[in-house]
Amino acid sequence: MRKILKKKRSSAESNADALDSIDWKILGELQRNGRTAYTELGRRVGLSTPAVIERVRRLEEAEIVLGYRAEVDPAKVGREVLAFIRVNVVGDFLPRIVALSREMPEVLECYRITGAESIIMKVAVPKSRDLQPLIDRMTPFVATITSIVLSEIVTSQVIERWQPGPGRKPK
Predict the structure, then answer these.
(1) Number of folded domains in the chain?
(2) Closest CA relative to residue 19, chosen from 46, 45, 58
(3) Structural domain harbouring 102
């Protein structure tokens, strides 16, 4: 394993360049199943248990592996409606909307984006009628556009080593 940078750098590429093929295999396995035992992980990537433990520790220290968590199906815990709310923030209301999004348990994810809108939120609520009070909490400050998810197409891709394809030029 080439040395993964321990100091935070402004460029994510510096850590990506430090990853070798075994690191990428470990990342793939952990993304598919973060509960894989170290012995099994070592078997899959061709390393001893202590060697794989050390590599995973380095990936965690470099903040490449950010954590391990359970995926929960929102519909099976009573939140059957998944929606995206695009928010157009005008004036100085951005800090209020950011704070509000952090307070609302319905908001699963929230991103600052470019384009016509300023923010996009992924929300989960029990019924479509539960979207209205959620949106009403924001509308004194912003304009919103809401899209209800009909079906999921891609929900969790494994991040693999970037390989330039046709039409893409390598660095």
Answers:
(1) 2
(2) 58
(3) 74-148
